[in-house]
Amino acid sequence: MSDEASYPQNHSPACLSLWLKLAYSAFVLVLIPVYWVEYGPVNFLWLCDIALLVTYVALWLKNRLLISMMAVGLLLPELVWNADFFSHLFAGHDMFGFDATAYMFSPDIPLYVRSLSLFHVFLPIVLVHALLRLGYDPRAGLAQTLLAWIVMPVSYLVSGPDRNINWVYGLTEIPQTWLPGGFYVLAVMLVYFLLVIWPTHLVLKYLLKYRSTGLQARP
Fold it and tell me: Domain range spanning residue 49?
């Protein structure tokens, strides 16, 4: 998966606009304390929240590997989140049947807190923009897999069925019972690799092949 031979070691990173980095940073610096107070620090174990924070760092460093990791692991889940959210918003029901975005319409959560979760809408746009500027690092698939395979067991140990961070207790609010907990987490880890990371890696590697191999160092 890594295909390191095709990765250029001597490249000059493309520019990412300052306004994007400043606007993104301002949003993150507002979100962190609000989420910390409303949801607690454990909430930052969500892979999407990790992606939000890592992208903040990656934008300033213009780090191709970090951007590629977050893209390969989150573009597909964020596509699902957006389809579910906008279906609920405009049609009044979720698209996939497991209420992934039901919290966005819950009056029990303050509106300003829910509005911060709209980062799910712009995060994939930012990631795609950064990929087009920096290219795709083919090492990202393996790196993101290792990251997720650390985070998911930790999520299982510290979140509990009521939080169900990274869906390690089931796909709905009702915990799954058809597998022992540990085996279910292993299944989630495997499914995440097979259905999210691997196909996204193949697509990004193909579509951004020119950007990944053609950015040579400027004299």
Answer: 14-213
